[in-house]
Amino acid sequence: MQSAENNIEIQNYLPHRKPMLMVDWILEINNEEVKTVFKIKPDNIFVKNNFFAEVGLIENAAQTCSSIVGQSFFLEGDYQERSDVEVIGFISGIKRVTVLELPQVGSSIHTNAVLSSRFDTDEYIVCTMTCTTFCEEKKLFEAEINLFIQEKR
What SUPFAM superfamilies does the record point to (predicted)? Predict the structure, then answer.
């Protein structure tokens, strides 16, 4: 894992804040791929019986995926942050999801997402992403998700 000083805070790309923030850091990002990390803490709203629930894995994947599209709303040229932006976004469909194992409290998960398709209009963006989540080398989760994102005006 990269050191924290080289990582990007996810808040630069998403409107989410605690307790609904399910990504700590963006490790790498470009216009087609993103890699994130999230440490599962005992007070997380999706922790049940010392495990991060399936819905938490889905929300982590959606936030990871939406950061690719989110950067077009939150950043101007030369990666300068915009603070005047408010967006709304949601999962418009889950095409496929496979949960292989649930991570335990205290573990860190790494989620990788790849943009499959993207449709931009003046009003909104719709995209399809594939994502995979790991804990260390063990694959926990795979999904293909559709997202709808638009700037609030």
Answer: Thioesterase/thiol ester dehydrase-isomerase (SSF54637)
**Distance in angstroms (rounded) separating the CA atoms of residues 14 and 33:** 16
Q: What is the mean pLDDT of each successive set of 10 residues along the chain, which is 153 residues long? A: 50 62 90 94 97 96 85 55 64 94 98 95 90 97 92 70
* Superfamily of domain 4-151, CATH level 4: Hotdog Thioesterase (3.10.129.10)
Question: What pTM value is reported for the model?
Answer: 0.83
Spatial CA neighbour of 62 closest among 101, 119, 21, 103 = 21
CA distance readout (Å), 9 to 27, 29, 81: 9, 11, 11
Neighbouring residues of 39: CB distance < 8 A, sequence distance ≥ 6:
24, 106, 107, 108
Which three-class secondary structure state does DSSP give residue 45?
coil
- Sketch the domain layout of the chain as residue ranges: 4-151
